[in-house]
Amino acid sequence: MPNTNDEDGRTAFLENPEVQQFTTPFTSDFHERLNFAPPTCEVFSAPVTRLESDPQYEFHIHPASKAALPHIIGNKVQRVIGIDEPDANLKNNYAKNRSIGIVFSGGPAPGGHNVIAGLFDAMKKANPDNRLIGFILGPDGILENDFIELTQEAIDAHRNLGGFSMIKTGRTKIDTKEKMAIARENCKKLNLDAVVIVGGDDSNTNAAFLAQELFDDGIQVIGVPKTIDGDIQVKDKNGKILCAMSFGFHTAARSFACNISNLCSDCSSDVKYWHVCKVMGRVASHLALEVALQVHPNMCMIGEEMANYIDTERIKKANAEGIIDYTAYGMTLRHLSRVICNAIARRAAVGKNYGVIVIPEGILEFINEIQVFIIKLNTIIADYNQTHDTDFHADFVTLDEKLDYLRRLARFSREHSSFTVWNTRDDDLFSDIPAFFQEGLLIERDSHGNFQFSQVETEKVVLGLVKDYLKIRQEQGRYKIGIKPEWFRNTLKKEGLDPDYYGSVIFGNYNTDDAFLLTKETLISLKTLNQELVRAKVIGKNDDIPKVIQRVFLATIPKFKTQVHFYGYDGRGNDPTWFDSTYTYNLGQTAFSLIANNATGQMAAVKNLEKSFSEWEPIGIPIAPLMHLEERKGKLALVIERTVVDLESPAFKVVEAIREKWLAADPGPDQYRKPGPIRFAGNSVDSKPISLTLNNLGRKSGIA
């Protein structure tokens, strides 16, 4: 029989207020977040807003966009203006009863809930009877008519919190006539006046096409820029900035930086690991750049820099021979591995056989030889699916089956010279790639037909080459750990040996002022050490190497140990920073102002993000003029162009200028920066991305 007194005691213990504060999921930080009221741009303090077209912004409009989106191609940039004393028509239109739908599309990004909160608060302020409909699990919710009406209680339970858990998200795209027809029918059934689509470049592209499709039905569509990758940045054709950064980027970068900073502390403590940190960013390296500015890792590889790399030595050699070396343009995998190896060896020479490397997940996409393979394989897979009305990966399940199909294409190309997508040379080069990487390059494409870099062990590809080259350098005697002279002398004296007697024989720089001793290049093993000691007549031919000398020598032999980390999902699910909480709340407010003033096919944005909050300016950006033709699933399609890292930007120039200092391949201390945990307070010195701040300072200084 259970002891009733024991049960009562346990119950009383669990109900103790001090115990409950540790067992409840609702922490003090949680409550602080829920109760935080983000500041709003000054225009939203007015009872009504209106829109004002701003003619100073112009775009290069693609003819295909003009043809496909005639109803919205003429949209202009619109500024949101606060009106303290509106006339009757403006006031009545602003306050009329509306039903608005909202949907998350694509991966989560910190701050999404505040887009909903900002929209909800603005529409309820305009008219308490307004309804907000949340579609469940992304665009599938629109297609399947799966929705909930969002209430004050639901909104208040998610303010300033990370994730998209309020209504969930999904990656389905409304990109066919059939899906468009279903979406229109379901929006009309719900009597929606507008739909807000929160997503990345593809989702905002869909928003433009949906706006075109629903134009005659009077249903407005507004996009909101979301992606932690930071590759939605909008400028007009003259370079004037309209949207400096998508939401979620700052939080994700700060989250990654905090974790990577901890690794910097770890590696400099046990001095035996190189931490290789892959961060999200398939198309652009904005996150890697921001993390580098936050942490100061020993190495940070920026993909865009790889693509623009020019090997001047190869060009000179080719010019001397009267030929053109096309491989001199664009970083190769082999050269990338050499760059990393040289840095590792330089740090080892000053006793630092450890470090931190940051690489973007899409770095391989910037390597020319890999990009060629990806383009060709994307085309082959897309053509196969279209021609056979089936799925390439379903028909060829194993790697051997896929390789056999490629070999058949190569033979066909050899027999029919008109077929050149996959030739014998491609097949030979592809055969030289390790099997795991072949499998990675042939992995199933995403829903847009894109290569899924996050599914490929990028770091394994790069590290495999690095380890191979380090082994070669070690065999050549060009990869050694430097040791401090005083340690060497003290160690030998403890064993009663004369350091000077052995020092000049073992070390190439013994009697110098160098801070670290390096063994001679010829000494690559105990065998070669024995031979050198015998040759110098320090020991006899049949004598053993003194054990203390063996111990000293082995301390100079590096062991390249790595720990690999991937940062992506953890950062995109983080609770938003003050910057992202405030940014997204104002985006929601902006979305309602656009809807209340009859806009459609516009992207809600906040201008001047790089400046102080008092200068933030809510605007609507026309989506259609942002589009260009890009290959998707083997075909050209209209999409919003992603923004890559500008190698002329002040932020990159800063990294370029001081990366040698960050490498710290000298006897001095490492230069690791400690960004600290994410602080929610608005007075944080890190209240916006460092890259935005530097770019703004650069423009003010006239260097950008």
What's the short story on this structure?
The chain has 704 residues and is α/β, with parallel strands linked by helices.
What are the key terms here?
single chain; 704 residues; alpha/beta; Rossmann fold; 4 domains; nine-stranded mixed beta sheet; four-stranded parallel beta sheet; 17 strands; globular
Classify the beta-strand content into a percent band. 5-15%
Give the terminus-to-terminus CA distance: 79 Å
Structural class: alpha/beta
Note the overall shape.
globular
Assign the CATH superfamily of the largest domain: Phosphofructokinase domain
Q: Tell me, rounded to a whole number, the average pLDDT.
A: 93
What's the number of structural domains? 4
Spans of at least 5 consecutive residues whose pLDDT stays below 50 are none
CATH class category label of the largest domain: Alpha Beta
Based on CA atoms alone, the radius of gyration comes out at 30 Å
Largest sheet, order of strands side by side?
A: 1-2-15-14-7-6-3-4-5
Q: What is the CATH architecture descriptor of the largest domain?
A: 3-Layer(aba) Sandwich
